Structure formats: C-alpha cells, structure tokens
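wait is this the right file?? whatever heres the structure
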C-alpha cells in the first residue's frame, strides 16, 4: 500500500497528505491564536485566551499580558533564554521596557491585580475553613491599591515605606507570608479608617493569621532557603500588626502571665534569627533593604558626663541619669539593661518622629533573650525600660503607634506603682507624663480632622 494515504477515506485526491515522503506523519497544524497573550505567542503554544490570566500563565505564575494592552511607549521584547533552562521554566520570557510612561504603570498595576487574585484563588481552593467575603477579587484589588497608593506615613519611616511599597509585590507573589502580611496591613488600616465596614477587619484577621502561619513555617523549618528580603519585610509588617492585635486582645487587663508584654515582643524576635543566619545575611548585605537594616546596629555609648540636675529633675538628661542609676548591676554580673537604655536614650533626649520608626522598632526586635526573660518574670527594671519605650512610641504620628503603646504604658505604670520603692515612683513620672502628652496631642489632631471617634482610646 502506498504511503501516500489520506487521513479521511474518500477525501479529495488534491487534499494534502498528513505524511511526508519518508512516511513520517506531518505535525498537525492548529488554528493560530490571533488574540492570545504575548507569552504564549512568543513561546508558540496554544493560548486559551482566558482573561485576565490565561491557563498557561496561571500555571507558571506569570504576568499575563495581551497585545491589546500595549500602548505607545510600551515595548515588549523577548528576554534572552538563560543557558541550561527550558522554555517551560518559571521565568517569564518577556519583559516590559522601562519607558516610564503612565501606560506602563497602568499595565504593571493590572498585572499585580491579576496575579494576586490568582494566588488567593489557588489558596482558597486548598482551604476549607474560610470566609468567602474576605477573598473576593474586588476586595483583594482594593487592598493592593490601598497599600500602593497611600502616601501618608503609615507603615514606617519615609525610607522604609518607599522601599516596601516599591518591592513588596514582586517578592510577595513568591512568598505567601509576605503577600498575606501586606494585605493584612492594608485591611487593618482600612478598618481603622472605616470601622463601620466589618469586611476590612475580617480580611485583616484572615490575612494576618495566614501570614503568621506561613512565616513561622519558613522561619522554623526552611530558613536557609528563604528570601531574606521578603522575610525581613514581612517581619516589619507583622510586628506592627501584632502590637495592635495583642494589646487589643487584653485591653486594660492588669499585667499577668496571660496578658504579658512579651507576647508581642517575642513576635519581633524573628529579625534576630534572620540576621544571624549567614546565607540570609549575605543576601541582605547586597539587597535593597540595606538602608533600613543599617539602623539595627549597636547603639553608641551614652555620654559618661550625663548627670542628674537637682534644679531640673524632669529634664531629659536628669531622667536618663536616674534611669541608668536605678538599673546599675553588680560589677561581676551580666548587664542586660544598659544596651537597651543606650538605644532608647536618643528618643528620650529628643522627640521621636517618622524618621525614627525603624530605630524604635529595632530596639524591641533586637533585645537579647535574657532581657525578654526578665520581662517574663516581671523584673521591675526591665519593665521600667519597656515602659519608657512605650511612652515614646506614641509621639510618632502614625495610625498604629498611639493607642496600643499608650495602653501598654498605662498597664506597666499601674503595675509598677504598686511596688514599694520610692525610686520607681519617681521614675514613673516621666513615662506617665510623656504618654499623656502624646495622647493629648493625638486627640487634638483627631478633633481637628474630625476623626476623634475613630482612634481615641482612654486608659484612665
């Protein structure tokens, strides 16, 4: 029988055979995808043309782009294929040129939206217990936009906020703990701005829990293979959320084992673990977070001439001199107090501001485990130092700094006021007065803005 046969018996003799002269079967041609996405076209694979993300891009977690989205000023160009990697690798084969045009920004934002929604949808299918209202695409997109578009200082210093808003989502799409931390932060802020809309608080709680779970797994079981920049970024966001959530959970309750300040302090200790891991530290030394991490170094020694002025006992130098004197330890004993006081001193000598956020949080994130253990035992000197920290944080004008720190300062003051030691009672004047001044300033600002009902908290 001749090798030149038709695929369909009885077909037209002029029909082209599906076999070539050697008898090998020709490759079946498929209808060209005229409306397929850019990635599929360049890889020459069939695109299912699903929008906003086609099946091929969704499977590989790529940014799905369609030619119709390209405008003047946007140039799509194929990236050189890295040696040793196949076309089916997880790196998208196209990139957007850096033209700086508004169209590019719109395209990038649209890509972020579609990828975040795709990640959350995949996560939702693997979870049974979940509130569907918190994972709706429109809510996820709203949280993304709020995180990227909020220009007031709300998640750190001007330097750290600019860095995290620029780099968070490219990292978060490959680190679920960071993605959920970002969305939790945005949802919590929106809940603070619009407390009447319960969907934000529910979304904040869900994403916060998922971020903590994923972050803990990465930190405990797979830290060596982690993305150091993503882990540090998540840690910074989770620290703020944990301070808010933990303090809110026990409110005005007296200090106790169940309502201890170490609950939220321990949550910040992951930074020390990351910085002490050689492979991660190497990543950070050449990464974009270096300007922030440089503020986590040891504090400069305090001026040895700092003294108590009997004519001005409430001056900053007098307060520091008295605090240092109270925390002196025996020469042969280890001193867990002086390093923390040295880091806190600049913010007692001057009023902290938005530029001080990173250093203030670094104080708590960097305390030694011995200091945390002293807090667990309700050591009066350790508690007093923490009380001073809580009294200074509310002077930084951000939505998360005031009420939580004020409540914690009040709880510690009440506990220490019961200690039968005149030195402690004298030292409590400063944190109580500092916290009261910060609270009065915040309430005045909220009244001026017509928002006093949103965030005011009374601690008696």
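ok assuming it is, sequence goes like this
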């Amino acid at each position: 029988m001749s090798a030149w046969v038709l695929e369909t018996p009885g077909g037209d003799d002029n029909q082209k055979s599906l076999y070539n002269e050697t008898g090998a079967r020709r490759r079946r041609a498929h209808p060209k995808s005229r409306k397929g996405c850019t990635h599929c076209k360049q890889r020459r694979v069939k695109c299912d043309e699903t929008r906003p993300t086609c099946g091929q891009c969704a499977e590989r977690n790529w940014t799905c782009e369609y030619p119709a989205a390209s405008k003047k000023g946007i140039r799509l160009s194929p990236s050189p294929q890295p040696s040793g990697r196949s076309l089916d690798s997880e790196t998208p084969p196209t990139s957007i040129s850096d033209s700086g045009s508004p169209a590019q920004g719109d395209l990038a934002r649209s890509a972020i939206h579609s990828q975040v929604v795709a990640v959350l949808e995949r996560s939702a299918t693997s979870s049974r217990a979940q509130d569907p209202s918190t994972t709706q695409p429109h809510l996820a997109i709203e949280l993304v936009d709020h995180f990227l578009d909020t220009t007031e200082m709300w998640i750190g210093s001007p330097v750290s906020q600019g860095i995290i808003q620029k780099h968070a989502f490219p990292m978060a799409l490959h680190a679920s703990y960071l993605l959920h931390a970002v969305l939790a932060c945005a949802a919590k802020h929106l809940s603070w701005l619009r407390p009447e809309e319960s969907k934000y608080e529910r979304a904040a709680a869900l994403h916060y829990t998922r971020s903590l779970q994923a972050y803990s797994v990465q930190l405990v079981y797979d830290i060596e293979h982690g993305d150091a920049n993503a882990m540090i970024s998540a840690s910074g966001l989770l620290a703020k959320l944990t301070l808010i959530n933990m303090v809110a959970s026990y409110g005005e309750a007296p200090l106790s084992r169940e309502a201890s300040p170490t609950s939220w302090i321990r949550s910040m200790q992951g930074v020390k673990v990351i910085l002490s891991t050689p492979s991660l530290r190497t990543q950070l030394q050449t990464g974009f977070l270096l300007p922030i991490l440089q503020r986590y170094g040891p504090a400069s020694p305090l001026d040895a001439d700092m003294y108590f002025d009997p004519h001005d006992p409430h001056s900053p130098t007098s307060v520091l001199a008295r605090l240092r004197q109270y925390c002196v330890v025996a020469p042969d004993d280890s001193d867990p107090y002086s390093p923390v006081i040295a880091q806190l001193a600049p913010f007692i000598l001057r009023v902290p501001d938005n530029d001080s956020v990173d250093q203030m949080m670094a104080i708590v994130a960097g305390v030694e485990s011995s200091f945390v253990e002293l807090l667990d035992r309700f050591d009066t000197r350790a508690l007093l130092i923490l009380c001073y920290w809580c009294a200074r944080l509310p002077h930084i004008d951000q939505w998360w700094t005031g009420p939580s720190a004020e409540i914690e300062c009040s709880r510690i003051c009440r506990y220490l006021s019961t200690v039968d030691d005149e030195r402690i009672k004298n030292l409590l004047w400063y944190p109580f007065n500092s916290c009261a001044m910060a609270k009065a300033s915040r309430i005045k600002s909220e009244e001026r803005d017509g928002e006093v009902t949103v965030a005011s908290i009374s601690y008696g």
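The radius of gyration is 29 Å. so i think its the right one actually
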